[in-house]
Amino acid sequence: MKIGFIGLGLIGGSIAKGLKKAHSDIYIIAHTRSRDSLLPALNDGVIDEIAEEIDEAFGSCDVIYLCTPVANNRQFLVLLKDVISENTIITDVGSTKADICRSAEGLGMEKNFCGGHPMAGSERSGYANSSDHLLENAFYLLTPTEGTPERAVELLTSLAKDLGSTVKVLSASEHDETVAAISHLPHLVACSLVDAVRDNDKNGLMKTLAAGGFKDITRIASSSPDMWEQICASNREPIADYIRKHIASMEAILSMVEAGDGAGIHELFSEAGAYRNSITDSLIGPIDQQFYLYCDLVDRPGAIAEIAVLLATRSISIKNIGIIQNRNSEPGALRIQFYDKRSRDAAAAVLKQYNFLAE
Questions:
Q1: Residue 354's CATH number
Q2: Is 115 helix (H, G, I), strand (E, B) or coil?
Q3: DSSP letter string over 299-358?
Q4: Using one digit for the tens of pLDDT, what is the confidence trace for 245-267?
Q5: Which of 107, 220, 326, 339 has its CA 20 to 30 A from that of 74?
Q6: Are the CB atoms for 4 and 65 separated by under 8 Å?
Q7: The pTM is what?
Q8: Final residue before a domain boundary, out of 145, 170, 195
Q9: Average pLDDT of span 176-180
Q10: Tens digit of pLDDT for each residue in 76-131?
Q11: Are 28 and 87 in the same domain?
């Protein structure tokens, strides 16, 4: 099998690494704006060929992954139209689907195209941070057009499962409405929360006290402005619809607060908490997960070092570690961040074994 990649950053690189791991005989060709950026992947043996241009080298590909920003992916469809074979399957990894599916149909390429969205990511970017297991336990959404052949969906499903992903097939419109609610709106709300504090922080006190919980719940406000400019432009209507719904919800909450409606506020938190707690932690969603462990700690010399040694001797890697200065909203004095859930759970078991209060 021959597979092409246009763009080979975090997601493209992770797909390429995962497929090469699952099928060492797959031949991978890749193209990016800068040839030099592909040399590490060539040296790693992840790709077999660097394509200088979008030309006939891609014509013999069984599958081509478009792994550039959403607006650029549509441009590459145009370039690929005259070089692919009639059996080539093109897919993308963008977080909005209706625009590119319409583009494929408008170009008469619907029988060659199936939208894709691997719902995994990281605060890090680029090929250097890609891994062959990034998409393990992640949802991989496929959005075929009306003309997409069944064999294309079956092949892309098989390749996604080779990466350890859970596949769901849905329409482009259903996809865009769903991610508008569970990914796009939360990113915009996080930005709004940060702006509300920034605009009213007259003496810097809010910023000083915002360490911990506030910074955690608004973490996604630090996402790439360039990427989110394109996402919001390509998914305008669903995002606008959910912003209106959120505004209506906030207005209802405002009315309860102004009226001193304690019962209403109690019910709000009760119902929201129940729904949130019903969401599984076993699969990865559109917003990259952070794996924290909070540990109650006595302020004494060597306490942090003791914890670090306990975890290191068991080969448990720590991503970050810090002392919580504002303990109003957190359960412990020390916050430890891990790379994955497995490491966090193993660390919790070790620390509890040595009588540290960790959760």
A1: 3.30.70.260
A2: strand
A3: --TTHHHHHHHHHHTTT--EEEEEE-S--SS-S-SEEEEESSHHHHHHHHHHHHHTT-EE
A4: 999 999 999 999 999 999 999 99
A5: 220
A6: yes
A7: 0.77
A8: 170
A9: 95
A10: 999 999 999 999 999 999 989 999 999 999 999 999 999 999 988 765 678 988 88
A11: yes
Q: Which amino acid is at 116?
A: G
Residues constituting the chain: 359
270 pLDDT tier (thresholds 50, 70, 90): very high
Count of CB atoms within 10 A of residue 216's CB? Answer: 13
d(CA 209, CA 146): 53
Domain count, the chain: 3
The count of C-alpha atoms lying within 13 angstroms of the C-alpha of 86, restricted to the half-sphere facing its C-beta, is 0
Residue pair 314/345 in contact by the 8 Å Cβ criterion: no
Written as six digits, the tokens of 271 are 């119902």
Task: List the domain range (segments joined by +) for residue 295.
Answer: 291-358
Say which residue the tokens 């759970």 belong to. Answer: 345
Answer yes or no: do 49 and 161 share one domain.
yes
Does residue 251 sit in the same domain as residue 205? yes
